[in-house]
Design a protein that fits this description.
homodimer, about 300 residues, alpha/beta, eight-stranded parallel beta barrel, globular
């Protein structure tokens, strides 16, 4: 398999089963992409956090899922919900992003009604990537691996330049924080992962995929993705050919055969976003390495029940 | 009404509805009676934490719910589950209690299967009361009120002495921590609340009750309770006659009429342990002041949905 990446240890199943990865922190318990959510993941001892990086107008990487800062989860300095969809992060300065409060989901929106146990953070700003890296670099957080999703702006006027600049900024921050050995570069945009590998060959790359059959319950923003003539017959082979070490299919696309094929090719297999007890158990049975979930406690519970029975 | 107790402000409903009180911390999200659970409550901005105090053999108040340290939630230093029921806390030294790990529920028990989203704390000791008070006294936790449940040992050879000693120790610690003005003394044992009021008249008293019709889903340990000839026709009147300022009925015993009667008598009304969306909404409709819940995020969500609709 060529180069071995120690960063993948935090994403590879062991005798106790799959690793747990906190999706945008622990969105089932706390608002997404907040330091408090990431800290919750550390407290409960799971292996990794997954989070999303988008560039602001002043070219600061911030940890926000959508390319717009939406009224489903963000209020302005006066406490009023932003429009939904809201302004493009690429057209907001960091100061404008930081003026918003992302500590509560808006129950007047479909998004806000999806996570019915999600608590409130009275005051929470969207963290910068640097904030998350500073958090992760603290000694008490040394056990956390980072699944850093690069969200390439689909409206960038020059995609190649956008990718190169974004990767350069992100990689510089990861290196400066001393977190190269715990970070995996992760994206739907297979093209930006080429750039990431070229600029930072010491970090492994993780390839997100989903087959075009709709994503019930997902809120994936408009995303830069490969423009295949047709979807590859074997997604694991396509990931290996692209140069990846980790494959992250949507859980509806996961089969035991697909996982076995990926393992035979030397890939680590993560899957997202797995929230129901039924699908969590199916993913364990399929033999995936990592389960990315909004409910890390629920995945721990499923694993513990199996161990206890 | 005589004396006004500022401590009750953290338990009294306001225009936004009832206050939220974290039952044993936030048991739906994190193991019960742990500092991490209490810290979660602070992060999400709820008004109060509820917790249980039991005395060890060496007369240290520890924050443990049952009078036994049970294999449903405690492992020994070797990682083996304790028996279930386990040893009596009153016959364990603090060191023996502290040698146990209470950071995970045992999924081989009924208790351990009840909270299916409860995450794991890899290493958690039962806190002493002093640990909890030290936590609460930190400036960042100044918004939290404390609902301190006194768990009188039902097997104490001399109940009067047991009550007097327990109250003396607990009150001394609350005073030393400077937390008299945020603490409410709370018990099923109405007799110990007499003692509490006599020793610490500056703290209000909260009277737990439930009518003898069984407690589905509750795991209340054998408890010292009043030995009425018959259950009072009006529990609010009984609480007032006993000298209390707060009444905490089980949610199945709550009616709009009972709450209105209690309010007319000047009582603050809290109710426990309210976990289902249906019952949370019923409690809000009944006009209770505080909702004690294992799922504080769920109660926040119910309140926010009502405000958004």
């Amino acid at each position: 398999m060529g180069q071995q990446f120690g960063q993948l240890d935090g994403f590879r199943a062991d005798a106790s089963g799959p690793r747990v990865s906190g999706h945008r922190g622990a969105r089932g318990a706390l608002p997404e992409n907040t330091i408090e959510g990431f800290a919750f993941c550390q407290k409960i001892g799971i292996a990794s956090i997954e989070f999303d990086v988008v560039m602001t107008k002043d070219r600061v990487p911030v940890v926000v899922h959508n390319h717009t800062l939406d009224g489903a989860l963000a209020r302005d300095a006066e406490g009023l919900w932003l429009p939904d969809p809201g302004p493009r992060v690429a057209e907001m300065t960091l100061a404008e992003v930081r003026a918003c409060n992302v500590g509560m989901a808006n129950r007047g929106t479909e998004y806000g009604r999806r996570f019915s146990d999600q608590a409130v953070l009275p005051h929470a700003q969207a963290p910068t990537l640097d904030d998350v890296l500073t958090f992760a670099a603290k000694p008490e957080n040394a056990s956390l691996s980072l699944l850093l999703e690069l969200k390439t702006d689909p409206d960038a006027p020059d995609l190649a330049q956008e990718r190169a600049e974004m990767v350069a900024t992100v990689v510089a921050q990861v290196r400066a924080a001393g977190l190269v050995d715990r970070t995996v570069m992760h994206s739907f945009d297979w093209g930006i992962l080429d750039v990431a590998r070229a600029q930072a060959p010491e970090m492994p790359t993780s390839y997100l995929s989903y087959l075009p059959k709709g994503l019930p319950g997902e809120d994936t923003d408009r995303t830069v993705m490969p423009s295949w003539e047709e979807v590859p017959a074997s997604m694991p082979k396509a990931v290996v050919e692209a140069g990846g070490q980790m494959w992250c299919p949507h859980f509806l696309d996961v089969t035991p055969e697909g996982v076995a094929e990926a393992h035979a090719l030397g890939l680590v297999v993560g899957t997202w976003t797995v929230n129901s007890v039924k699908e969590i158990n199916r993913m364990i049975d399929c033999g995936v390495d990592s389960i990315v979930t909004d409910y890390p406690g629920r995945v721990q519970d499923c694993l513990l029940r199996r161990a206890a029975s």
